Amino acid sequence: MIFEWFSASFFSLFGALILDRLIGEPKSWHPLVWFGKWADSSRLQLQRSLDDRTFDQRRAGILAWCLAVLPWLLVLLVTFSLLPVALSWLLSTVVLYFCIGWQSLREHALAIELPLLKHDLDTARTAVSHIVSRDTQALTAEDVSKAGIESVLENGSDAVYAPIFWFFILGAPGVLLYRLANTLDAMWGYKTSELKYFGWFAARFDDVLNFIPARLVVYTYALCGMAWGNGSRARRCARQQSLYWKSPNAGPVMAAGAGALGVKLGGDAVYFGKKESRPILGEGRDPAVNDLTQAITLIDRGVFVWVILIYVLI
């Protein structure tokens, strides 16, 4: 029975990856767009005044998170209970497809790289602003490349590997839970005055869900970085540099990715009008434009490694 479940999960994974590569991410009718509107409504209904106690603001954030996520999980579980096996497999494939952002990550990277190659800095700044939270109006070409690479490496974990991990641990409900929780972290997890306490649970829950996948991604980047002779460097950077990064999961992932690529990331950046001094991640030279393509290549190699390992293990 367990073998049959893993076999069906592998075929769902294979189908979802093919759909993602061929179709990409739907722009206007993606379910996450609808979920974002639902989440905004949950926040408007439950967020407390900033003058309220920290405990009350956090409790409101927990309730809003539950209101945003749990109904959709319940709908999915009920739907699975009513479907025959063949349709359950098909639904699992579709759910995983909507939760993976492999092709979308590639498209975002190219949208940054191509303008930079044409020396169109304004367009590149606009493109990178779609995938990073820092201020981008004054970024140099090197800064744009660095921001894009950081986002690709971090989102390789969040949008590709972690969904695959939770799909094989808890099936379609697991990957849906992960994707919705990760989306709420992206919406509510910032330490601004409005979200510092309200978004506390969303940020911490996402950290928990990403803890194991992020460590697996470190080894994935290190293994794939061996093609450039940087496997040991990637592991060393993740081990030594991530201790000083503000995110417990993004730090080791980006450090390992930077080490695998042989570039230096991190450093000062401006978020919401305030300059932040960030540690250096990785070793080697400053990033160049074509390192965006190299970062995507690193993600692609890792996906192939995961698919092969999953196939061997089942």
Automatic annotation (TrEMBL):
The chain crosses the membrane at residues 62-80, 159-181. It is a multi-pass membrane protein. Keywords: Cell membrane, Cobalamin biosynthesis, Membrane, Transmembrane, Transmembrane helix. The keyword Cytoplasm does not apply. It holds the Pfam family CobD_Cbib. Pathway: Cofactor biosynthesis; adenosylcobalamin biosynthesis. It is found in: Cell membrane. Belongs to the CobD/CbiB family. Converts cobyric acid to cobinamide by the addition of aminopropanol on the F carboxylic group. This is Cobalamin biosynthesis protein CobD. It comes from Marinomonas phaeophyticola. The lineage of its organism: Bacteria, Pseudomonadati, Pseudomonadota, Gammaproteobacteria, Oceanospirillales.
